[in-house]
Sequence to fold (463 residues):
Amino acid sequence: MKFWRTARTDRRSRTALPSPPSGPPVEGEVLLETVGLTKAYAGADGELPVLSGIDLRVRSGEIVALLGRSGSGKSTLLRCLAGLIPPSSGTVAYRGVPLTGANPGTAMVFQTFALLPWLTVQQNVELGLEARGMDPDRRAEAAVQAIDLIGLDGFESAYPKELSGGMRQRVGFARALVVEPDVLMMDEPFSALDVLTAENLRGELLELWESGQFPTRAMVLVTHNIEEAVLMADRIVVLGARPYGTLRETVDIDLARPRDRDAPAFDELVDRMYRIMTGRPKDTRQPGRPGSGHPDRRTVATTPLPPASVDGLSGLAEMIARRGGRFDLADLADELGLDVDDLLPQVDALDLLGFAEVRGDDLMLTGTGEAFADADVQLSKEIFAPAALEVPLIRLITHSLRGQPEEGLRDGFFRDLLAHHFTSEQVDQQLETATDWGRYAELYSYDAGRREYRLDEGAAFLD
Ligand SMILES: Nc1ncnc2c1ncn2[C@@H]1O[C@H](COP(=O)(O)OP(=O)(O)O)[C@@H](O)[C@H]1O
Ligand SMILES: [Mg+2]
Fold:
């Protein structure tokens, strides 16, 4: 925090940014609003929905976090709100006026900083103003003020490559803040930074926000990090990704600021967010099998394979077994120094295979899961194979191959089928998982050279 304090003292003796409101901005006014927003990207088989039916409001005075797993459509939603891409249907409005292009009330901070390496800090910060047609003198002055506010003074003439990651992201912030946007949009702004730098920058940003010296009225933060969302947001909007991005739940975070990560109330909220993110949408829940939905109702379209290798999911199963078959997810992630994105695919995989269930805050091994965790390699394959066959895509591949026991099938066949429901990136990822799981289960083999699946001997009779 030291850097920020220096900057603040400095700024008092110089000029502050134009007319900062005293105290935090007034609450209430709707700044951004989406109604029935849908976004689809082109897939092999026409348009594939990524977001559906999004009704969202961002009001003056609040920090809204968009929380969701990788691929849930957070960045897409943020870009729609910023007017960088148009929605496929529905509307996005800024102060009640529907957008027809870039949103004039927003500025964006990116995860990857997106600085121009051949420009100095000062020039990078001035870029946004240049685009808005401000004359050079006023531009320079405004840039100096933004640089000062964010703790970058002294670095004006440095080039990005001379700066640490944290300093580079400060340039990202200064460049966005210099245009004094009503809403500051941030797309995982801390996730490319090391842990300590990220924590420091979050703290500084919140101090500035709370001090009321911030030239913005609201902030929208995209993150996959639950603790970051609970630390920063007044409201967390959870995007669910099954089968495509919808608003799963909105949670108000009423903790007083500055927030104490060690407070029990903070922990409770983190646990609650974990529950929401690991749970399934209510309509697929079944009594007795809370996690996975009834196997008979699962289809390839509704049951995407998570990006989890057999080694990864086995490792997690063993860890839970060693802890007595049940474990608090938040604690486990914490202990391993992982983000939620790192752990959820393995959790999903165990759940999909019927090896574990999410119960409350805990991940619990089922009887089969315990047997799997305890088994030696050969036995674990025997347990894995029938469980994998209950997974729609693995089942589809195996059954299709049974129709061609001699010839095998090109992966293009499955790609085309999946393309009806998923983007090409998702198809790649799922086939990678299906290949790994199917090989391990000895259901089929895959020849990467010929891009061909072939039935494994023995798999013909397994079911
Ligand atoms: N330009 C694009 N063209 C096609 N598919 C895209 C494009 N951008 C994102 N996607 C797909 O849309 C889904 C949501 O992506 P994104 O909004 O980046 O999610 P998140 O930010 O939550 O990780 C992903 O499956 C991704 O592959
Ligand atoms: Mg993203």
Remarks:
- Residues 310-461 form a domain with the Arc Repressor Mutant, subunit A fold (CATH 1.10.10).
- The radius of gyration is 25 Å.
